[in-house]
Amino acid sequence: VQWAKHLGATVIGTTTSPSKVALAKANGCAHVLNSKDAGWEKQVREITGGKGVPVVYDSIGKDTFLAGLDCLIPRGIMVTYGNASGPVDPFSPACTQWIWRSRYCAVMPLSRTAAAVSSLIPAGSFTSLVAGTLLASA
Protein backbone atom coordinates (compact mmCIF):
# COMPACT_ATOMS: atom_id res chain seq x y z
CA VAL A 1 0.00 0.00 0.00
CA GLN A 2 2.70 2.46 0.99
CA TRP A 3 4.71 1.64 -2.12
CA ALA A 4 1.73 2.26 -4.43
CA LYS A 5 0.86 5.49 -2.63
CA HIS A 6 4.52 6.56 -2.82
CA LEU A 7 4.32 6.09 -6.60
CA GLY A 8 1.19 8.28 -6.77
CA ALA A 9 -1.53 5.62 -6.99
CA THR A 10 -4.96 5.97 -5.43
CA VAL A 11 -5.13 2.75 -3.43
CA ILE A 12 -8.37 0.83 -2.87
CA GLY A 13 -7.71 -1.77 -0.20
CA THR A 14 -9.73 -4.68 1.11
CA THR A 15 -9.91 -6.30 4.49
CA THR A 16 -12.23 -8.73 6.22
CA SER A 17 -11.91 -7.09 9.60
CA PRO A 18 -13.47 -3.76 10.60
CA SER A 19 -10.60 -3.27 13.04
CA LYS A 20 -8.12 -3.18 10.13
CA VAL A 21 -9.88 -0.38 8.23
CA ALA A 22 -8.17 2.41 10.19
CA LEU A 23 -4.80 0.68 9.84
CA ALA A 24 -5.24 0.37 6.06
CA LYS A 25 -6.16 4.05 5.79
CA ALA A 26 -3.25 5.08 8.01
CA ASN A 27 -0.92 3.22 5.66
CA GLY A 28 -2.21 4.94 2.54
CA CYS A 29 -5.49 3.41 1.36
CA ALA A 30 -7.84 6.07 0.04
CA HIS A 31 -10.74 3.58 0.22
CA VAL A 32 -11.12 0.37 2.22
CA LEU A 33 -13.73 -2.28 1.35
CA ASN A 34 -14.71 -5.48 3.12
CA SER A 35 -14.00 -8.37 0.74
CA LYS A 36 -16.46 -10.55 2.67
CA ASP A 37 -19.30 -8.25 1.54
CA ALA A 38 -21.10 -9.57 -1.53
CA GLY A 39 -20.49 -7.27 -4.47
CA TRP A 40 -17.38 -5.51 -3.17
CA GLU A 41 -16.04 -5.55 -6.73
CA LYS A 42 -19.04 -3.43 -7.77
CA GLN A 43 -18.00 -0.88 -5.14
CA VAL A 44 -14.61 -0.67 -6.85
CA ARG A 45 -16.39 0.18 -10.11
CA GLU A 46 -18.44 2.86 -8.31
CA ILE A 47 -15.31 4.41 -6.78
CA THR A 48 -13.61 4.49 -10.19
CA GLY A 49 -16.60 5.92 -12.04
CA GLY A 50 -17.29 2.58 -13.73
CA LYS A 51 -13.79 2.24 -15.18
CA GLY A 52 -12.16 -0.26 -12.85
CA VAL A 53 -8.52 -0.35 -11.80
CA PRO A 54 -5.37 -0.92 -13.88
CA VAL A 55 -3.91 -3.50 -11.50
CA VAL A 56 -5.07 -5.80 -8.71
CA TYR A 57 -2.59 -7.26 -6.21
CA ASP A 58 -4.29 -10.25 -4.58
CA SER A 59 -2.77 -11.94 -1.55
CA ILE A 60 -5.98 -13.76 -0.57
CA GLY A 61 -6.30 -16.21 -3.46
CA LYS A 62 -9.31 -18.47 -3.90
CA ASP A 63 -11.94 -16.26 -2.22
CA THR A 64 -11.10 -13.02 -4.06
CA PHE A 65 -9.49 -13.97 -7.37
CA LEU A 66 -12.52 -13.90 -9.70
CA ALA A 67 -13.99 -10.79 -8.04
CA GLY A 68 -10.58 -9.15 -8.43
CA LEU A 69 -10.69 -9.86 -12.16
CA ASP A 70 -13.99 -8.01 -12.33
CA CYS A 71 -12.31 -4.91 -10.89
CA LEU A 72 -9.87 -4.55 -13.79
CA ILE A 73 -9.95 -2.10 -16.68
CA PRO A 74 -9.51 -3.54 -20.18
CA ARG A 75 -6.00 -4.98 -20.43
CA GLY A 76 -5.62 -4.62 -16.67
CA ILE A 77 -3.12 -6.73 -14.77
CA MET A 78 -3.98 -9.26 -12.05
CA VAL A 79 -1.07 -10.13 -9.77
CA THR A 80 -1.75 -12.99 -7.39
CA TYR A 81 0.92 -13.60 -4.78
CA GLY A 82 -0.72 -15.35 -1.87
CA ASN A 83 -3.08 -18.11 -0.86
CA ALA A 84 -4.54 -16.97 2.45
CA SER A 85 -7.91 -18.52 1.54
CA GLY A 86 -6.36 -21.34 -0.45
CA PRO A 87 -4.94 -21.60 -3.95
CA VAL A 88 -6.96 -20.25 -6.86
CA ASP A 89 -9.07 -22.95 -8.46
CA PRO A 90 -7.98 -23.99 -11.96
CA PHE A 91 -9.77 -21.86 -14.54
CA SER A 92 -9.98 -21.47 -18.27
CA PRO A 93 -8.78 -18.21 -19.81
CA ALA A 94 -12.03 -18.39 -21.80
CA CYS A 95 -14.16 -17.95 -18.66
CA THR A 96 -16.53 -14.98 -18.60
CA GLN A 97 -14.19 -12.81 -16.54
CA TRP A 98 -11.57 -13.01 -19.31
CA ILE A 99 -13.86 -12.72 -22.35
CA TRP A 100 -15.29 -9.28 -21.60
CA ARG A 101 -11.93 -7.61 -21.12
CA SER A 102 -8.48 -8.41 -22.35
CA ARG A 103 -6.49 -9.17 -19.20
CA TYR A 104 -3.11 -10.31 -18.06
CA CYS A 105 -2.42 -12.44 -15.03
CA ALA A 106 0.89 -12.82 -13.22
CA VAL A 107 1.79 -15.13 -10.38
CA MET A 108 4.40 -13.40 -8.27
CA PRO A 109 6.36 -15.38 -5.68
CA LEU A 110 5.93 -13.66 -2.33
CA SER A 111 9.68 -13.81 -1.65
CA ARG A 112 10.34 -11.71 -4.75
CA THR A 113 7.74 -9.11 -3.79
CA ALA A 114 9.00 -8.94 -0.21
CA ALA A 115 12.59 -8.48 -1.40
CA ALA A 116 11.63 -5.54 -3.62
CA VAL A 117 9.68 -3.80 -0.87
CA SER A 118 12.15 -4.55 1.91
CA SER A 119 14.95 -2.96 -0.11
CA LEU A 120 13.08 0.36 0.22
CA ILE A 121 12.47 0.19 3.98
CA PRO A 122 16.05 0.98 5.07
CA ALA A 123 15.97 4.06 2.83
CA GLY A 124 13.29 5.52 5.13
CA SER A 125 10.58 5.58 2.47
CA PHE A 126 8.20 3.24 4.27
CA THR A 127 7.26 1.76 7.58
CA SER A 128 7.01 -1.96 8.15
CA LEU A 129 4.03 -3.76 9.69
CA VAL A 130 4.97 -7.03 11.38
CA ALA A 131 2.55 -9.12 13.47
CA GLY A 132 0.25 -6.15 14.04
CA THR A 133 3.04 -3.83 15.20
CA LEU A 134 3.95 -0.79 13.16
CA LEU A 135 7.72 -0.46 13.05
CA ALA A 136 9.07 2.93 12.03
CA SER A 137 12.05 2.77 9.73
CA ALA A 138 15.19 4.58 10.83
Structure description:
The chain is an alpha/beta fold and about 140 residues long. It has six helices and seven strands, in the order αβαβαβαβαβαββ. Strands 3-4-5 form a three-stranded parallel beta sheet. The chain has a two-stranded parallel ribbon with strand order 1-2. It has a two-stranded antiparallel ribbon with strand order 6-7. Residues about 130-138 have low confidence and may be disordered.
Helix and strand layout, with pairings?
Elements: H1 2-6, E1 11-15, H2 21-26, E2 29-34, H3 40-47, E3 53-58, H4 65-69, E4 72-80, H5 96-99, E5 104-107, H6 110-118, E6 128-130, E7 133-135
Parallel strand pairs: 1-2, 3-4, 4-5
Antiparallel strand pairs: 6-7
Radius of gyration, whole Å: 15 Å
Mean pLDDT: 77
Strand order of the largest sheet: 3-4-5
Strand content: 25-35%
Helix proportion = 25-40%
Helix and strand content put the structural class at alpha/beta
Strand tally: 7
Largest sheet: 3 strands, parallel
Identify the overall geometry: globular
Enumerate how many helices there are, as a single number: 6
What is shown here, in short?
With about 140 residues, the protein is α/β, with parallel strands linked by helices.
Sum up the structure in keywords.
disordered C terminus; 138 residues; two-stranded parallel ribbon; alpha/beta; single chain; globular; 6 helices; 3-stranded parallel beta sheet
